[in-house]
Amino acid sequence: MEREIELAALDLRYESYRMRNPAAEARLLAAIAERGIEEPLEGVDHTSQSILLNGFKRYRCAVKLGMSMAPYASLGEEEAAAILNLLRESNDHSLSILEQAAFLDQLRKLGSGSVADLAERLSRSKSWVSMRLGLLAEMSPRVREKIFSGAFPVYPYMYTLRQFMRMNGVHKQEVEEFVVALSGKKLSVRDIEQLAHGYFRGPASLRQAIRDGHPGQVLEVMRQVPEDADGCNEFERMLLKDLELTDKYMRRVMGKSEDRRLKTPAFHAQANLLTAGILSQTQAFSDSVRKLHDRSGQAQSGVSAAPGGHEHKRDRAPAASQPQHGVHDPQAKGGDAGPDTQAQGPP
């Protein structure tokens, strides 16, 4: 049942569970100033204080306009039940997928049951619940704070950064550094997507420039690079594609190689042989790539250097030591090692 409530009496503990949108809030402020609050705030009728769950933009607008009372409707007398009601009605109230995830996570903390229990109570599938809980688990606390506060837009996180995490082996810490560096810069979604490609796939000098607060300089450098291979001959286009695939699969291997799921004897036996072959070519491969990098950087292409210049020693990863054996030498040390010797994975 709808009633009037004092704004000062509301408990705002769930304000950080709802995403801020300054532009939408500014439009709402103008509408409330003209017509008042047309939809009631919603929350939990707790014994001591009403806990607000829905209507934080309306609440903030009302406070700015000096209003002391607002229409209010209860979603329940117990937190978990009220949150479940809010999630059931989320289509009407337009909860974003991240907001749904935050409230589902809170339900788990309140002891409201397993994934299957929540799915049944919400009349949703288990995959619907699991996907949202997994989405929130991928985010570090700082990334969550930046996105929910509106400092970093949600779209590039959902559809660009998550793809780098899933497909390119990018770690949480790297994503956090990127999000923190660009938060509050008021960049377009397109600009953030371009910067993400430079940050996660480009040289260390680009990453450092972004971390140092110079995204505009990085964008200028990247805009001078053609987006396609027009003007290249067929052999050059083939090599560019090979370089893209090499970058992609190097990141995938780095991201997966520390996974604790790598534990079967069959895997370790085969991985030991394959990695021996790769390591035997590491130095030669590194030298070839370095020469190509230097030669292409010196070419008269009209493309300026990245901020910070080409500092080879900084950008260059330490070279792996040349192995003393190869896959074709069955008597070499480690060549026939089983999973119980040096081929062991992480404990």
Describe the structure.
The chain is an alpha+beta fold and 347 residues long. Among the domains are: 1-77, Conserved hypothetical protein from pyrococcus furiosus pfu- 392566-001, ParB domain (Alpha-Beta Complex), CATH 3.90.1530.10; 141-223, no CATH class. The chain is 56% helix and 7% strand. The chain is built from 16 helices and 4 strands. The protein has helices at residues 22-35, 56-64, 79-88, 90-93, 97-109, 115-122, 126-137, 141-148, 154-167, 172-182, 189-201, 204-211, 215-223, 234-256, 265-298, 312-315, and strands at 2-6, 41-45, 50-54, 69-76. A 4-stranded mixed beta sheet has the order 1-4-2-3. Helix 3 packs antiparallel against helix 5, helix 6 (115-122) packs across helix 7 and helix 9 packs parallel to helix 11. The model is unreliable at 300-347 (pLDDT under 50).
Report how far apart the termini are. Answer: 57 Å
Secondary-structure element order, N to C = EHEEHEHHHHHHHHHHHHHH
Round the mean pLDDT to the nearest integer and report it.
83
Q: Quote the beta fraction.
A: 5-15%
With helices defined by DSSP (H or I, 4 residues minimum), what is the helix count? 16
* Major β-sheet strand ordering: 1-4-2-3
Q: Over the alpha carbons, how many angstroms does the gyration radius reach?
A: 27 Å
According to DSSP, the number of beta strands is 4
Structural class: alpha+beta
**In one word, what is the shape?**
elongated
Helical percent range?
A: 55-70%
Poorly predicted residue ranges: 300-347
- Largest β sheet strand count, sense and barrel closure: 4 strands, mixed
